[in-house]
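## retry 2 of 3
previous attempt timed out at serialization; input unchanged, resubmitting
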Amino acid sequence: MKLNHLISIGLLACLPALPQTTGQIEPKAGAWKTWAITSGKDYRAAPPPDAEATNGELDWLRSMAAVRNNPKIAEQIAFWDAGAPSYRWMDILSKRIIAGQPVTGYAHRVQTYMAMAMYDATIAAWDAKYAYNRQRPSQLDPTFSPAVQVPRSPSYPSDYAATAAAAAAVLAYFIPAEAASFQSLAEEAGRSRLYAGAEFPSDYLAGLDLGKRVADRVIEKARADGSNAIPSTVVPTGKCMWIGANPLFIAAAKWNPLLLNSQNEFRPPPPPACDSAEVKQQATDVRTYPRSFNSNEIAYYWQGNEGLQTWQFNFADRWMAEDKLDQNPPRAARVYALVAAAYFDAFIASQDGKFTYWYIRPHQLDTGIIPLFAVPNFPSYPSNHSTFSAARAEMLAYLFPTRADQIRAVGKEAGDSRIWAGLHFEMDNQAGQKLGASVAGKFINWAKNDGSQ
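## retry succeeded, writing output
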């Protein structure tokens, strides 16, 4: 791509510059363990241009400095600079999910592979950054004034462009009808760093190429996860069996997990007979739960798109901002990838339990139970909500240990809300909480040995 193709608007006055910082951001992150690519080093970008070419790029950046006061460009610079390179992409996906826009039948699967691609692209970019140690434009020319705070990392390749290209390619794979739009966003994200004067054009181009190469590998992994298999939908019948047809998510019981040794590695023990005194009492507890405006409000929240799919990233974003991890691209990308990946395997493990036991729902056992809202069309034991919420809460507790008690309480509330709403037995909730914590434990052990310590 030629330099004159990077800019399509006129030149205006320059924005005031912000000071550069000192030190280095995660100089060893290029060696951290990756999810889909073999290593950051194996995907290292080719060497950056020589000194003469770099000086030419610097001249070009000087000539483009006046573009920054164009309102559209200033808005783009501020938008993409609001956090780590991965932040906006996860936010874009979360808003899409909350709005009910198409994300395939499994929103968490899209989250997982996009987060995985962003993380692996960041690690590969970090390998090249510290292998080549290219100075930023304002380091080569102290009189050059960038419009943003210059990151404390080498310039080449652009981690913003790498992250954007990786995220956009994965989104295009899952939502092909919008591929051109995602690609346009990726180019905008990368170009914003040129407009801001934080990177060279060749950083941007190398980052785009790197992100696309990483995304190709992630997409290969997604294609091989077993999600395209057509499951048997024969529903068993008999005492204590779920009553229904065409259950949702049955295929996920056979997907290939990311870290679990098998789908049933942590399968809960069989539930007790539905005519036992224990289960009858639990059914009574569900029927007689004293619902209130507050309990109903909480239950509805956890049934909504945010409560089902995106709440974990709300907490992560807030805490990364508070802890300044939003200024540390490898750490931020690591948070997204670990939380999303743990949810992915928790989803598989929960479906394995559900479609092993096919256990009856409370309202099917006790017709006096009136659920607060429509009951999901699949068996009861273990609780999906409890499993998923426990897995995500435990990952966040590991990543943000000073908030561990707070986030575990959030995860517990999510599971408890399904009893308040009349959807689950307490045993479903407890089995799900234990299952989710066990799955998270695998990811925490992985994280403890990923090289980031």
